[in-house]
Amino acid sequence: MVACRAILTFVKRKEREKKRQNFIVRTIWTIVMIGGFAALLAAGHIWMIALVAALQILTYKEVIALAHDKSRQRKLPYGKVLTWYLLASTVYLLYGESVIYYFREVLLVDALLLPFATHHRFISYMLYIIGFVIFVSSLEKGHYQYQFTQFAFTHVTLLLVVVQAHFVMNNIMSGMFWFVLPTSLVIINDIFAYLCGITFGRTPLIKISPKKTVEGFVGAWISTVIFGMLLSYFLIRWQYMICPISDFSENAFSNLRCDPNPVFLKRSFNVPRFLIPLVYQTTYEIEPIHYHVIIMATFASLMAPFGGFFASGLKRTFNIKDFGDTIPGHGGITDRMDCQFLMGFFSYMYYDSFIASHHLRVGSVLETAIQSLTLAEQLQLVSALHKYLYNQGYITEDTLECLEMVMS
């Protein structure tokens, strides 16, 4: 009896020591990740895009590895190569779309890049068709079910990981605010869901993730809304956060300036009638972005966690604890990004639907002129634009004559 108690005490002590060591490692790597994120954030948009691309590829690798049977893969041609080829062709399509949208005025005037910019979607489609033909050609008797399962699993992963991560990159290009805020909301929600859950959590929320509680879910929602509004209050006072990208060389120290989106500027609102006796005023001023933050924080609290529940179900399907061991103490990249991609996709859709100012861009006008006008009409347009600039006093008569001589 005494021996059993001693063994039990020893086992419990070992478990506590293991948990303590894991907590220390987890804390250290959390600090490292926060520091690295802050450094890349200050370095500029291109570094944040590179970070998202790296996380996207690593997440794709971890998820795809779940359904791979190594013994079968060695017997089948092109299996693993085709998986990565489909990733490359999808990245080419999505990232190319974004670069062309934001930098048309650069790409469309370059003789080398013009064909890739104007025929981007056709090139992307043909790249995919090549992969499709390779897949069909590689089908082998006795392995059809496994190969088609792999093909379907790859496409689902491309949709849920790569496509959603692509819109996170668009958020960065629209302004760091639309990347930093959604990312922070998910992290804040995750922290407070844990704190509220262990403090007063009693009612189980969902069977697939038994540790989640209704009390933790609701408490995290309220906390995320409050902290989200506080965070947005500070972020919108930094031009680097709210300005869209215009040059990949920009960073936190380049004194970036722009005309802010109207949601970042204070507006006057009427106080509801029933509140006037309490606040003693009929109007108040506030930046409209704070109302949008409430909606985004609500999504991060009530909808984005289902990305984590989905990941939990996937892990139980394949009987694994974590997606990998890339981050010591945290598991795989997917274990940290399961909610982020869903939140990033929502943020892009919300921004594009309710906040973005869809005005005419130089790139759009240039694309129309190149694709819709003949050479003679393009020259006529250039000549008319030069005359307009001369009449407005922006260029001299000598400059106008010189340009007309070159065109003639």
UniProtKB/TrEMBL annotation:
Residues that span the membrane, as ranges: 23-41, 47-69, 81-102, 122-139, 151-169, 175-196, 217-236, 289-311
Top-rank taxon: Eukaryota
Keyword Lipid biosynthesis on entry: yes
MF GO annotations: phosphatidate cytidylyltransferase activity
Location(s) in or outside the cell: Membrane
Membrane topology field: Multi-pass membrane protein
Keyword list, A-Z: Lipid biosynthesis, Lipid metabolism, Membrane, Nucleotidyltransferase, Phospholipid biosynthesis, Phospholipid metabolism, Transferase, Transmembrane, Transmembrane helix
This enzyme's EC code(s): 2.7.7.41
An individual GO BP term: CDP-diacylglycerol biosynthetic process
Keyword check for Transmembrane: yes
Pathway terms, separated by semicolons: Phospholipid metabolism; CDP-diacylglycerol biosynthesis; CDP-diacylglycerol from sn-glycerol 3-phosphate: step 3/3; Lipid metabolism
Pfam families: CTP_transf_1
GO cellular component labels: endoplasmic reticulum membrane
Annotated catalysed reactions: a 1,2-diacyl-sn-glycero-3-phosphate + CTP + H(+) = a CDP-1,2-diacyl-sn-glycerol + diphosphate
Main location class: membrane
Family: Belongs to the CDS family.
Protein name: Phosphatidate cytidylyltransferase
Species whose genome carries this gene: Lipomyces starkeyi NRRL Y-11557
Lineage: Eukaryota, Fungi, Dikarya, Ascomycota, Saccharomycotina
